[in-house]
Amino acid sequence: SQRCARNANSSLFSIGLISCHGIGRPLCQSAPCVTYVLNHGRYLCPEPAPNFSERTKDYARRVIRLYSALPKAAVAQVLGHQLLRSGTSVGANYREASRARSKPEFISKLGDSLKELGESEYWLELLFEEKVLPPSRLQPLLQETSELIALFVASIKTARSR
């Protein structure tokens, strides 16, 4: 297997589910692109960070901060609570996927994360359309949600094809 030039001497591996040329932020910032290897049923990348685990946890933290900034109006709190529930579930489901005992369980847990991302996108759209917060506050999280959805879709397709 090839390693990325920046990390050629490293023996550290982190779980990676997409190629460096995948949608959204790449897992590896250096050239040449990392070649993924299959090891014990998991796709490994010789680049130690960033990874899905960190990115989904960061996503949950951003959702928590957004929820904390919502007005106390009933509509904002109800929509925000739904977003808080779904947005913080993404990383938890991904963590379960990374500890899956089988390929079907792995794909199922990734699917659960994707489902929660879709729901989070829905609640964010409602908050945006109802002008609960300024668009400048919601747009970055909507963008991250879209990127994560694309990454999870690509990861599920890759896992199914292997």
**Overall residue-averaged pLDDT value:** 77
Radius of gyration: 17 Å
Secondary-structure element order, as H and E? EEEHHHH
Oligomer: single chain
Q: Note the beta-strand portion.
A: 5-15%
Shape: elongated
Order of strands across the main sheet? 1-3-2
Level of helix content?
55-70%
User: Would you identify the regions where 5 or more consecutive residues have pLDDT less than 50?
Assistant: 1-50
By DSSP (H or I, 4+ residues per run), the number of helices equals 4
Helix/strand-derived category reads mainly alpha
Biggest sheet record: 3 strands, antiparallel
The N- to C-terminal Cα distance equals 17 Å
Strand tally, please?
Answer: 3
Question: Can you give a write-up of this model?
Answer:
There is one protein chain. The protein is mainly alpha-helical and 162 residues long. It has helices spanning 52-69, 74-98, 103-129, 135-161, and strands spanning 14-15, 37-39, 42-45. It has a 3-stranded antiparallel β-sheet, with no helix packed on it. The chain is elongated, with a radius of gyration of 17 Å. It starts with 13 loop residues before the first strand and ends with a helix.
